[in-house]
Amino acid sequence: FSPFLPPNSSWDAAYERELQTFQDIGDTGEIWFGEESMVRIIRWLDKHKVPLDSSVLDIGTGNGVLLVELAKSGYMNLTGIDYSPSAIQLSEKVREKEGMSNIKLKVEDFLAPSAELSGFDICIDKGTFDAISLDPSDALGKRKLYVGSLGRVLKPEGFFLITSCNWTKEELLNEFREGFEILEELPTPKFCFGGRIGNSVTALVFQRK
């Protein structure tokens, strides 16, 4: 599954449509990479006995559904950011519907994070790094800004869980080589094309040095 990644100018329009749909019929919209991607993340946190009071940042939270699932699993210190105000509006409505008042949501540009966005134990990215990578204006510079921001907001020895449909494991290792080390690759669905088996999705766990 490969989510369609529109250029930046249409993110707000996309989330405005999802916001309207949610108000009309209560549908939260697209779950990027599907339900199993959320299960994979929660299972890893659980397996490694990550404390439930750990501070978690969801980078590019979209509709906020991942944070709701984390809250249902017992995590208490949850923050979601998105640079689209419509996405944050949508995630606020989802949060209210689910009664998860302890989830913090903020409009933030991760490439220029505010000073209070710091000290997180866990950062999670499902597709945001992909979207930045496809930005037609200075994608390389924006990827560098992203890695710099990650180093500022994540505590030393904190964990970074990334799910990508654009990058291979080797490419991601290269992108995050400054300041981060790979802990493990998480299993993702495989596809077969022309007799060759490959992964349509890559999911990695890094630790900040």
UniProtKB/TrEMBL annotation:
Keyword Transferase: yes
Record InterPro entries: Efm4/METTL10 (IPR026635), Methyltranfer_dom (IPR025714), SAM-dependent_MTases_sf (IPR029063)
Domain Methyltransferase: 55-184
Pfam families for the chain: Methyltransf_31 (PF13847)
Reactions accelerated catalytically: L-lysyl-[protein] + 3 S-adenosyl-L-methionine = N(6),N(6),N(6)-trimethyl-L-lysyl-[protein] + 3 S-adenosyl-L-homocysteine + 3 H(+)
Nucleus among keywords: yes
Gene Ontology terms, MF aspect: protein-lysine N-methyltransferase activity
Any GO CC annotation of this UniProt entry: cytoplasm
Record protein name field: EFMT2 methyltransferase
Organism: Peucedramus taeniatus
